[in-house]
Structures are given as C-alpha cells and as structure tokens.
Amino acid sequence: MQYKERRRSVWHCCASLSIAYFWFHIRSSFLKKFCEDVLNPFVRVIPDVGDLNMFLDLNSSLVISPRFALLCGIRSGSVYRVRFFSGDSSSSVERVLEIVILSLEQKAGIAFITSLCAFNIFRESDKADYFVESITDLSSHLCVANEVKVSLVRSPLYEEIDFSELLEDHFSVPRLLSVGDIIVINSSQEVIGRTVQYLFKIVFLDNVGPEVTLIVDSKHSTLYQVGSICDRIWSPRGDIFIPPCYGELTSRIKSLIFAESSIFPDRPVTFLLSGQPGCGKRLFLRHLAMISNLNILFFNCVELSSDVPATFEARLANAFTQGSHYGHFTVLVFTNFNIIGASSAERNADIRILKFIEQQLVACDSLAVFFTCHSSFVDQLSPFIRSIISYEFILPNLNEADRREILLRIIKQPHSVDIDVVVRLTMGFMLAEINAVVEDAVFKQFEEGSAVLSMNHILWAVDLRNKTLSDEIGVPKIPSTSWDDVGGLNEVKTTICESLEEKFSDVDKHQRTGILMYGPPGCGKTLIAKAVAHHFQACFLSVKGAELLNKYVGESESNVRKVFEKARLAAPSVIFFDEIDAIAPERGRSGDSAGVADRMVSQLVAELDSSDNLKVFVLAATNRLDLIDPSLLCAGRFDKCIKVDVGNDIESKECILRALCRKVCCDKNIDFRRIVELQASLSDKRMSGSDLRAVVCNAVMNIVRTQIETVRTGGKLPEENTPVTEADLEKAMKEFDGRK
C-alpha cells in the first residue's frame, strides 16, 4: 500500500514537472513572439493625408497605437530617435520623428508613416518591409535651422513660378527636416479641376549633413528658393491601378532600368513595349514611372511625323530636348512607333529618320526610352531600329482573375450584378473595352433612371460593344443559337461535343485541335458551329475564307494570325472557318503566281500546331473536300472529317421543320410529319435545312400578303398576331416544290 502511494506521488511529481516545463516553453515562445510583434512593430506606409491640423506634420511623424506607447512609455507629441531595420536585416536607418498616438489599428505591432515620409527615410517610397528596431530619447534638444535653401524639383506636371507665399505658408507649421528631404506643397489654385502638388528639395540646412535633423520654421528660419534641379520625384500611392498580371512585369522592367543604368550611366535603356489596342500600355508606363519615382513624357509619333524629313527630324529633336530638361530622372515614351519604324504595304521605313533616332539616343540624357506599338506591327519593324533596342516586352493578356479584379474595382455596386457572369461575358476584352462596357452600362442606368446597376445594363453594354465591332474580322462573342435550333444531325452533335469536352477539360491527354465539316450547301454546318459554342459557353469567331484574302503581300497571312490571336485572348473559344477551301486549296494546284494560297495554307498549319495546348478549338466547313490541302487533314489538325448531309428521311426533316418553327408564331395543332410526307409525295428530291427554312419564310410572307390585301380592301386586321397554320405551310411547300 505504501509502495503504491509512493509510486503515485512520484508520478504526480513527474507530471507537475512536465506541465511546468511545457508551460515555461509556451510562455517563452509567447513572450518571444510578443516581443517580436509588439516591440518591433511592422511599418505600414499609408497615402499622403496632408496635415490633420495646422499644428501637426504627419510627413515627419511616426503613428503608433496607444498599447505600444503604453508598453514603451512613449508620450504623444514628443520627438524621438527612431531606428528602422529591413525585413531581411540587410540594412537599417535612423531618423528623428515626432511620435503621434492614434488608434488606427487594433494590433499593437503596427506603426504607420506616410508615403512621403517613407520616401525621405528609405529613399524608396515602395519599401514596405521595414520594422521599428528602437525608439530612444534624444540626447539633446533639437535646434532650429537658421538658413534653409530649397529647390524646385523639375516636373512636366507644373511650371516654374514664384513660390514665396506658398513656402511661407507651408513653413508656418514647424517641420522636422534633413538635407535631401522632399517636401510637397499643394497650391490653392485649381488647374484643370485638380490641385497641383509642387515638389521641393532641401538642398542646404545650416551647413549640416543629411544625418542631422533640424526644425524649420518660417518665423525663426530664413528661407531661400534657389534654382530648380533635376531629381527623382515622389508620387502619391494609390492613384494608378493596373491589372495584377502587369505587376510582375513592372517590377522586372524597373529592375532592368536601374541595373543597366548603373553599368552604363551615359546612355538610356531602350525598350519596345507592344500589346493589343486598349490593353493599357500608357497606363502601364505611368505606373512604372510612379513606382520608380521618375518623370514621364509621352510623344505620339503620328503627331511628330511629317512628309518633309527636315520637319520630322526637328520635331524628334524637340522631343528629346524636352526630356533632357528633366535630366536623368525621366522616361521618354514614343507611342505608335510603327508609323516611323515599320514597313507596310504602302510605305517603307525611312532609314534616314531611323539613323537620326539612333543619334538622338546616343546624346539623350533620359534614364529610359520606350517605343510602343500594336503587337501585330512588331514583325514589320525595321531590323535597324530593333538592333538598337535593348529589350522587347509584350503586355500579357487579361485572364479571368484579372478581369474579376478590374470589375470589382470599377463597378461601384458589385453586389447588384453577377460578377461571374460579367467575367465570362468579357472574355477576350482589353482593359479599355472593359472600362467602356462599364461606362456604357452606367450611362444606360442613368438614362433609365434606375437606382442600381443591373445585369440588363451590363448585357446591353456588351451587346453594344459587339455590334460596334461587327464589321471587324473575327469578333469574339457568345452566340445565342442553341441545340434546339438545330434539327436532327444527332450523330454530328455527339461527335463534336465529345471532341470539345476533351479540348476544354483540364485532363492532359490527346486533344483534338479541329474538326472539318463537309457537305452540300444549306445543310446546317454554320448553325452547328454556333450551337456548339453556345453549348460550351465559349466565344465564337466566325470567319469566311474570302474575308482573309488581301491584295498586298503578307497581309493575308497576317489576317490569319490576327484571328488566332483574338481566339487566344478570348479562350475558351471556337473559331469557325466557313468556305475554308477559299484559303486552303491544295498547294501547287491553284495556279497562283504570287503564291498567296500556298502561304495561307502554311500559316494556317502553323497556327493549328501552336493551338494544340490551348483552349482554342477550330471548326471548318466546306462544300469541296477534294480541294483541301492534305496537310490540314492529318492528325493534330483537322484530324476528324464529318459529313453533314441533307436529311433524307422523314424523321430528320420533321426535326428540322420543328426547330425552324420555334421562333415563328405557329398554330399548336400543326402536324409537321404530314407536311414532310407531303413534300416526299410531291417530289423525290431531298430538301436541305435551308430549303425548309425557305418554306417557313414563304408561309409567313403569304400571311403578310393576305393582311396587306385586307387593309387595301378596307378590312380590319385582328388585334393578335395571325399564327402560321398547317394550310399555310402546305401551300408554301407546294409553291416551293413547283419552283424546284
């Protein structure tokens, strides 16, 4: 018994020691985490908020939480020496700041500074991985600066004027400043509906170094405005939004600019930036200049161009001179560069102008020079101009996540519309097109006097955009034709659906790229293609073969490339080539001396091969399968040929006739089978789907003629629509068969 009690007491002792050990370990881990999170708060950069009141300068302040201030014994409104360290502990910096205690965040482990304060401390306003290492009292009181010299930082956003009154008013509030700091003064005058922000740099402060912080006050300090200087500029954050897919590219280009300029400081870094119209090239470059703290100047080559070379050169020289005015802290952008550097069917690139551009680049003082153009013109640029361009980039296409982010940002009431549906409807849209769709939808909302933006407004705007581009080859849109509109042809439907299910699935296996439908005219090949796209909710690009042909050399092949490029942008998508025999005849038999048909076939083969791993499916239709080049019919291209024949049995014709009468006001008691049997008894000729459609149209027209005759004779029309009866269809069938 005593042994059991002794054993139990030993067990309790061991358990107590284990619990104490684990409690000590957990407490130590908690305290360590607490010290890291609370005593070394993360520095979050907030946008410039100006002065909360006339006695506080947030651009020289560190905002902390009351909890953190209580833990460290810090008083609000006092000045402390704050040391920051980077997240990777690679660098640290020290600065004298005023401490402001505000409840901006529930967590104690977060401190706030403005983006301008971050720019002055870290010299990089996009740094967000800094932490507070220590906050210590000053060993001595801060001194007031006796003599202060400021210089205006040159920028194309404002002009150089007399700023005496603005400076006097700005420094009526005491400021903590060091040599090299940037200050921002908002003008009281409205220019083009906005307030102008003037940037100044502290170039002299009582002959002390940049590590010393002094108080600048207009009552006790003598201010001097000296000549303007060229320097990196500060830009407020949050003004420019770019799609998420552009973020990585901006960081990469920014790194290239500063890396190459450090190696070759005497010459600018040259870039060629291409993309689809409306993809946001100008917006992308403005964002790049903003995060790089650089000035940016845009010049449109259409406005610079001239038929007189001397005038053209003078305008180009003036553009480079404007860039030199802002020194090495400028990005020059020449838009529509294909006007100068690309050869087209009508003109060739002027080598004299291109060599003049090369000379200007050698003497240019700007940090970087960008040339932008449509992505389809990149291959047409002169090899000479491409040889002097260091880097070439293409703006990536918007994916589903990018479109969702854009729509959530620009739609003021996203809960009133189905964002998922809008994202699907805008497949293949550029950034400018998405903005235009939302603007048109908002216009329709105000026109109707609606309180909220609805899906009907969005659908109207999308349809308006599609109608606007209806004349362009291969406009991507989701058709409204469904399988109910296609009568019969069940085997064809099954085969095509199986192929598209494999193509649009994520399963990595053999996927068919295209299907070729052949058969006599009017049997429903185009209707099937539209119904397939509607069934899979894929964008549909319908192209007739003859539309791609162009009299200029190389333009026909370029049209083929453009169609596939649009399909890739709108993926998942279906391309339908109607009358493909016009662009893909058997090579060597066309008798084309220029070789256009042969090059078209080669281009089509190349595009089909490149679409193998993409969600782009190609359907084609032809009446003459024997004319198609054999290279298109091999595996991986149009490896499945489906014959779409005219319906020759009663059941097929009945299904087609029922489908055609769905959109027509018909009598419910029509016996469609009897109408089809009547046609079979009248003639042994087979009727295609287009023939049956003509019969239905003739029946409707007979009713219209009867109503017109009734009005002429003074009769009265019925209030309701007159339905098509079985007798009307029977009469139209007899008349049509008689014309045959």
From TrEMBL:
Ribosomal protein keyword on record: no
Any GO MF annotation of the entry: ATP binding
Keywords: ATP-binding, Coiled coil, Membrane, Nucleotide-binding, Transmembrane, Transmembrane helix
InterPro entries assigned to the protein according to its UniProt record, in alphabetical order: AAA+_ATPase, AAA_ATPase_domain, ATPase_AAA_core, P-loop_NTPase
Keyword RNA-binding on entry: no
Membrane-traversing stretches: 9-26
PANTHER family: AAA-FAMILY ATPASE (PTHR23077), PEROXISOMAL ATPASE PEX6 (PTHR23077:SF9)
Official protein name in the record: AAA+ ATPase domain-containing protein
